[in-house]
Amino acid sequence: MSALLTHRAEDHPRGHYIAPHAHRRGQLVFARSGLMQVETAAGFWIVPPQRALWVPPRMRHAIRCRSAVSLRTLYVEPGRWPGLPKGCGVLGVSPLLRELIIEICERRAAPRRRRALGELALSELVALPAIPIHLPEPRDARLQRVAAALKRQPGDERGLAAWARTAGASARTLTRLFIAETGMTFRQWRRQLRFTVAIERLARREPVTTVALDLGYNSVSAFIEAFRKTFGVTPYRYFRDERQATVG
């Protein structure tokens, strides 16, 4: 393709791990199917099927395939297209962009057509909505002990006063550290953890009722409402487009 945009298509089995690395170019990593987890020094992102992750140029990252994954990646030369995201983030993918990515990555086209498709894809990319499923990772050892325990049991409802004993720090110290290191309160971070776990489990077609109760919600309706407030749609609607695209 032109120097503006290049591409790659690859399929990986469940459990495949792409070790930490960085690219000179920015990249849009699209999950044509499957679920992946992308890790950086700033935390990790769960990328559901039919969504994409934007990784800025030279950002070091690793990819874990939580299921068998079909990756379709567009690489963009830095500084060649205005309005691209400044930071790493999961993005919704419009039906048009999905078809453009597939056309670019999977089919042969003449150079002039490839360039036109690439420019149209980049125009779509800059307009994509961000999806709030980033989980910042704390660096402080005391917070890491709390975070590790919650990852093992995200439905744990204990407050910071109880976690302070586990962490070896006062609740006031933990409160300050959570905001300083993650940009979130403890409750916000725990809620974000629950949503990242929920996205992964729902993508595996686990029942909404099971996921909701395991994550500490008192009822399925409470979970669905919390999900809707965060993502703008219910869990069913969130994954409906992916299932229709897979069938199509």
* CATH class descriptor name of the largest domain: Mainly Beta
CATH topology of the largest domain: Jelly Rolls
Count of alpha/pi helices: 9
- Class by alpha and beta content: alpha+beta
What is the typical, i.e. mean, pLDDT? 90
CA-based shape = globular
Task: Report helical residue fraction.
Answer: 40-55%
Note the run of SSEs as H and E.
EEEEEEEEEHHEEHHHHHHH
Record the strand order, biggest sheet.
Answer: 1-8-3-6-9-10
Walk me through the structure.
The chain is globular. It has 248 residues and is an alpha+beta fold. The protein is built from 9 helices and 11 strands. It has 2 domains: 5-131, Sandwich (Jelly Rolls); 138-247, Arc Repressor Mutant, subunit A, CATH 1.10.10. The chain has helices at 95-106, 111-125, 141-152, 160-167, 171-182, 186-203, 208-214, 220-231, 235-247; strands spanning 5-12, 17-21, 26-33, 36-40, 43-47, 51-55, 61-65, 69-76, 89-92, 130-131, 134-136. It has a 6-stranded antiparallel beta sheet, covered by helices on one side. It has a 5-stranded antiparallel beta sheet with strand order 2-7-4-5-11, covered by helices on one side. Strand 4 (36-40) and strand 5 (43-47) form a beta hairpin. Helix 7 packs across helix 8.
Primary descriptors:
single chain; 248 residues; alpha+beta; Arc Repressor Mutant, subunit A; six-stranded antiparallel β-sheet; five-stranded antiparallel β-sheet; 9 helices; globular
